[in-house]
Amino acid sequence: MLTRTPRWGSLGSVTLHWTRRKGRRFGEEADIGGEDWVLGEQCCPGQQAWDSQCRPWSHQLSSGYPPAASFYASLFEAIGKVVSTEARAMYNVGLAGLTFWSPNVNIFQDPRWGRGQETPGEDPLLSSKYASGYVRGLQQSDDGSPDRLKVAACCKHYTAYDLDNWKGVDCFHFNAVVTNQDMDDTFQPPFKSCVIDGNVASVMCSYNQVNGKKACADPDLLSGIVQGEWKLNGRCVLQFSTLHQTPEEAVAKAILAGLDLNCGSFLGQHTEAAVKGGLVDESAVDKAVSNNFATLMRLGFFDGNPSTPDEAKKIAAAADATVLIVGIDQSIEAEGRDRVNIQLPGQQPLLITEVAKASKGNVILVVMSGGGFDISFAKNDDKLQASCGRLPTTWYPQSYVDKVPMTNMNMRPDPASGYPGRTYRFYTGETIYTFGDGLSYTQFNHHLIQAPKSESCQNLAFDIHLRVNNAGNISGSHTVFLFSSPPSVHNSPQKHLLGFEKVFVTAKAEALVRFKVDVCKDLSIVDELGTRKVALGLHVLHVGNLKHSLNVRI
Asked: Where is the Fibronectin type III-like domain positioned along the sequence (predicted)?
């Protein structure tokens, strides 16, 4: 078997006394059937080791924010597939593990948060779709079986975490005071989607307190909601020792709350003493062992080490397209090093020509460089497309952050105190750019074809049909957003996202876009007690400048 380079953390960190009884001590890695299990690595921007060093030869893909800005739902899963395929390849040659601390699906509610770049933005629906899509891309095996894992993903950081170190307040000591309404309406949906829709292998609890309780030691959040209500098919993990009591009490409280794994050494050092001291029963530790080994089984650690080169050849021979990556690095262009020409160096032009001749289908040419090249064969390419990225967050003026403390977790505005609220759903003040803003080289118009004017709560769903017209001279992709402004009850959002679709429309042509609206889910709001209910009365649907009124009745 291959020898893995040790990484910090271990399977035995939460079950050390159990493994010692069996005559085996887990070090910084778990030795499973002769193989080393690297506990966890990062893959937010692509393959990384725990020390954040990029894996050689891996794609460095954008993390949550840029893909979310595309509003291209299928892209989320596609990125996950690329990362997991490379992870398996790296694992096969001893360069990576199979468990990853990704994705980060926290709500990016404050623009000052240093880790906001890792997240898919401020909107719960967008974040939920990104979460489930990226997780499916990472985890889904070739046969599509939910019992098998390509790699094990982890949705983090559960929950209400978006502060690291602000004016002397750090995430380890911050108490996020969150209303039931904001919890169910804003902070929980991405994690719920991770578990239920994405079937994620693990959920990482956050460093902070939530309403006075450590998130990693709150049985209501972990065993009650994640493992109980949502039925997590995996384990709850803790990244660092964030519990500040005596070590043994902290271990007991965490395990009894539903924690299965600590990827540092904290639980590994103190679990045995906690069991011997009667603070936690061994059966609770055995439950954590079962959850961890279930993940190993789904990853295939007990399936041997099959080799399938013939299968790989068949796949390559049947490929409908070829992706060819060419370009230069900083040995050719960098500070103090200008290029002498704008041609691809070496035999790369010949390589492109020969690959194009041999390819069964199209050749997708990816040029990696800082500057452009003279690639003459692409000069008259008729596949020119418009830029189509959209912002997944609100861009505020400096005056906003000057007034709003980062520690205030309330989403909704408070006129009495002058608090303006957060995100496009509640903030009504001045913005630099708002959620969904973006540029295009062409102009798109929307026309409503079909939508009801009145709908009964007894009807579960209805359809909205739109025609999108590209009025410009350039073909391009366009993101169609469907928003709803609910009745003004229970401090409801001024508007919220019901759905989004990306369509490609050639110049002077049109495309049909369909949305299915679930009355109970999409037209509901969360009241002050955290209860979700359908809002009766007038809802206004928005698509671009187009508005349509809908009366929801009993």
From this structure: 478-547
Q: Yes or no: say if 251 and 269 are a contact pair by the CB < 8 Å rule.
A: no
List the chain pLDDT tens, one digit each, 554 residues.
Answer: 223 332 333 333 333 333 333 323 222 344 444 344 445 565 555 555 444 455 556 677 777 888 999 998 999 999 999 999 998 888 887 787 898 989 999 999 998 898 888 899 999 999 999 999 999 999 998 888 888 999 999 999 999 999 999 999 999 999 999 999 999 999 999 999 999 999 999 999 998 999 999 998 899 999 999 999 999 999 999 865 555 568 888 888 888 888 888 877 777 888 889 999 999 999 999 888 888 888 888 888 887 766 665 664 455 567 787 777 888 888 887 777 776 666 788 888 877 777 777 777 666 777 787 665 666 554 444 433 345 668 888 888 888 888 899 899 999 999 999 999 999 999 999 888 889 988 776 889 999 888 888 777 667 889 999 999 999 988 889 999 999 999 999 999 999 999 999 999 999 999 999 999 998 889 999 999 999 999 999 999 999 999 999 998 87
* Separation CA 511–CA 509 (nearest Å): 7
d(C-alpha 232, C-alpha 194), whole Å: 9
Domain termination residue (choose one: 358, 378, 398): 378
Last residue of a domain, one of 378, 408, 429: 378
- Of 484, 542, 477, 543, nearest to 511 by C-alpha is 477
- Counted domains in the chain: 2
Q: Decide: 516 and 417 in contact? Cβ < 8 Å.
A: no
Coil vs helix vs strand at 403: helix
Strand partners, 516: 463
H or E segment and range at residue 537: strand 537-543
CB 512 within 8 A of CB 494: no
Tell me the C-alpha distance between 485 and 523, whole Å. 9
Is 31 inside any structural domain?
no
Paired strand residues for 176: 210
Whether residue 323 is contained in a domain is answered as yes
Residues 541, 446, single domain; the answer is: yes
Cα radius of gyration (the chain): 26
Look at residues 299, 278, 300, 288 and name the one whose alpha carbon lies nearest to residue 238: 288
Q: Is residue 76 one of the residues assigned to a domain?
A: no
Query: Can you tell me the distance from the alpha carbon of 483 to that of 481, in angstroms, rounded to the nearest whole number?
Result: 6
In a domain, 5, yes or no: no
CATH of the domain at 452: 2.60.40.10
Burial 214-251 (b: 16+ CB within 10 A, else e): bbbbbbebbbebbbeebebbbbbbbbebbbeeebbbbb
pTM, to two decimals:
0.71
Q: Which domain holds residue 355?
A: 319-378
